[in-house]
Specification:
The complex is a heterodimer of chains A (273) and B (352). With 273 residues, chain A is α/β, with parallel strands linked by helices. Chain A contains ten helices and twelve strands. Chain A folds into two domains: 85 residues, 2-Layer Sandwich (Nucleotidyltransferase, domain 5), CATH 3.30.420; 149 residues, ATPase, nucleotide binding domain (Nucleotidyltransferase, domain 5), CATH 3.30.420. With 352 residues, chain B is of the alpha/beta class. The chains are: A alpha/beta (273), B alpha/beta (352). Chains A and B meet through α4 and β10 of A and β8 and α15 of B.
Chain lengths: 273, 352
Amino acid sequence: MHVKPESSNRKLTIDNNACNVLPDIGLDLGSRRVKLAFRTAETGELKLYKYDTLTFYREFAVRSREGFCINCEKLGLGPVGKIVVTGYGRNNLELQGAQVVTEITAHAVGASVQSGLDNFICLDLGGQDSKIIRVEKGAVTDFQTNDKCAAGSGRYLESMAAILGVELSELGKYWENPVRLSSTCAIFGESEMIGRIVEGYPWEELCAGINRSVYVRIRPWLLAYKPEVIVFTGGVAKNQAIVRMISEHQEVRVIVPEHPEYNGAIGCLHVNL
Amino acid sequence: MKPTTDNRQPTINLQRDTHRQPDKRIGITTTIPIEVIYAAGAVPVDLNNVFITDPDPQAMVEQAEFDGYPRNICAWIKGIYSVALQQNIKKIVAVTQGDCSNTCALMETLAVKGLEVIPFAYPYDADYDLLSLQIEKLMVRFGVGWYEVREAKACLDDIRARVHRIDQLAWEDNRVGGFDDHYYQISCSDMNADPGAFRRQCDAFLKQAEAAQPHREELRLAYVGVPPIVSDIYQYLEGMGARVVYNEVQRQFSFPRPVDDLVEQYRRFTYPYGIFRRLEDIKLEIARRRIDAVIHYTQSFCFRQIEDLILQQELDLPVLALEGENPGPLDARSRLRIDSFIEMLKGRERHK
């Protein structure tokens, strides 16, 4: 996106009277990326932006005594209405004037809005978060998330792709004859992968093995939740091989919405507080 | 049950100034028949409680790691190890069956350091004869007979009755918060190593709690599993409008179903006898206390994490599995999971 030169240091706060006329913002403060969603005041068109998390905090967030503020002018957004924020940084950031929802709510709403469904299982695999959410009649009725370990998350895929020197989009094309990998830890996975490379496995099978290890990691959830329809969100949902592996699981129908990475931010934009 | 209101003092030999006479202190690794220890004129010290109330419990964990304890082992075990050494405990009763299998290695490492270790095993099937034998062997070890043990039991039961009233004030009268309910019940494992002082503390608390304004939280929670290593879970939950009105294992430490027979008392203690006895108690209390949802707390690297799948299957309520690793406040990820759970529960309430 185009970042306007900093013309002023205007800080973002909520003006309740203006909420009806100014565009609202949904903000997902993820571990790897900050995702922002808003609709333009003129046409109501959905606009989506993505920033490296550290860059976002460094470039667009201003710390004040009251907490963090977002420099909207610098973001090129102009005046905005309500801000709803979710993600790992939602409480730590204490974003001035923002309303906070948990990732579970944000992703459930986002997946519902994007898929048009009221009854589904949302599977969200992000940079370090993995979560599965049961949505019934539009309400969250159950969920699970990873807890002390981020193995098998998007960060693992990034790490493994870097070792093979391959783009994530290329990695996601391979699912046949996967090499068996025992570790989904982004750290130990590296040494195991190097061992497999030395053993001479074909590159395609190594890629498939990486994808399969992510699938194996979340398979117990699929068995427990017995989904009929999965709305698959988060950056990992762009990996076609993993989508295919899940689809073949008990012939479940997998829907990858148009903007899987922005699902949390879109959810924030539509959540009914 | 209401506590008696008479002012008689416990007749057992109370050892108050424990630091000056350290040889009287007997370290314990979880709840054991402390009647035997008090009957012998000694003082049980629950090393878990000393560890977790230390100003810097994390330093205890690190000390054990310096001595070679693996990083991926329960922090409670490491804390007990360091506390036993730091407090210069000479003798320890270690529960080798019915609590945690790591305790066996714990007592071996403490034995190497020169501590006298007395093993105590709860029989898996709560067999009366086997348990009776264990208690009698403990009595022989401490040189006491049934008469003294029963006398000690009467004194301790008197204090336990006060704690039962505190628990009742928590769930039935809603006048006691989750942390206080946890604290008074968990303290029953060793009576804070000073039954007289603990009894007075209970009385003072009861006086204040009986007159307290009732809590009016939106959600009533059960806390199931071993006591938390994190320090602020009860306060954090209450800040979100959810109060713990049932502390499962802590309540067991107070022996909520009193009985005259000491062996039977320790048979009714559900904690050491596997998940199914615990489940019976949990289901009963969930219904009685009108619980909305359950937090199942497990310690990192603990075998009880496996039992979570049974709890999830057996309980009809929403269950949040929460894992704690090191002492200190809740970490960001645990808070995130609790936030999501409470938000979901409130959403479900609205959809009813």
